[in-house]
Amino acid sequence: MHSNLRLIVDTDTAGDDVTSLLMGLLWPGVRIEAITTVMGNIPVESCTANALTTVEAAGRGGQVPVYQGCDRPLLRPLMQAAYVHGADGMGESNFPPPEHRAETEHAAHAIVRLLNEHPGELEIVAHGPLTNLAVAYMLDPSIVHKVKKVWVMGGSCHFRGNITATAEFNFYVDPEAARIVFQAGFPIVMIGWDICVRNALVGGEDLQRLHAIDTPTARFYRQVNRKALAFNQANGLDGVTHPDSITMAMAIQPELMLRSQRCQVDIECQSEANRGFSAVDTRPAPENTPAWTGGERTTAEVCLEADYGRFYRMLTAVLSGDFREFA
To answer: Which residues contact 80 (CB under 8 A, 6 or more apart)?
Structure first.
């Protein structure tokens, strides 16, 4: 069991973001110090309401502060994904408004403040567009040395995109923010869409077993992911995708990552056809080519393979409330 993991979770709360938050809120020994919300799947105000609703569903209402962040990308028009998760981001569940309210401090300011108050102690799990983190970095560049680790769900390593042929949604929505974060010097672990599809797609009998768990948490999980499941099945993915929750699971149990490589990662901002593409340089010796410009090439640790079996058991533990296997 991971003890004393302290997190800031940056999220565009919809669908699997909710599963990730539930995992962080319910896992023994994990403490979410703050949830920061950013536009992405849906407008930021809805992301904030969904985060508060999820905290309350986990029985933690009023105990975990939620800070609302950026309502648009740095340079681009607002882009959303209600077509995947429903207009409310929660599978068209239309839950009643949360009882609690967000804090008044802006998410980017909260990130800067918390990292300065607890240098070297907090990790960030980021599973939305990276706008809040980019703004926080611009407010105080010293935070790159004060955060313990940044787990980024975003991009795709030598694999297709999920919004265009080449781009994963989070990086596509705000490619400039992603580029700023990856070039800043943060201690990043990147978990791409490739990992989600290969190692975190739960369908068939596995999904039936999850759906058979009859707890309030499991019923909430089914409800918020039902639209995404239907969307996936209509688009050739037979199951629920868990990009955000496998990122959270990896922060909780890093041994979930079976293979990784330190790589130079750049995010495409100029091309329209390849906007948001994550160029992951996995070559052993890129300096041998004429295009090599020198300098530091390891901007991120990139996950190449994750343990689906362990992830599925972690998901089962969260939905059932039985963590004995991991004690």
So the answer is: 39, 40, 41, 42, 43
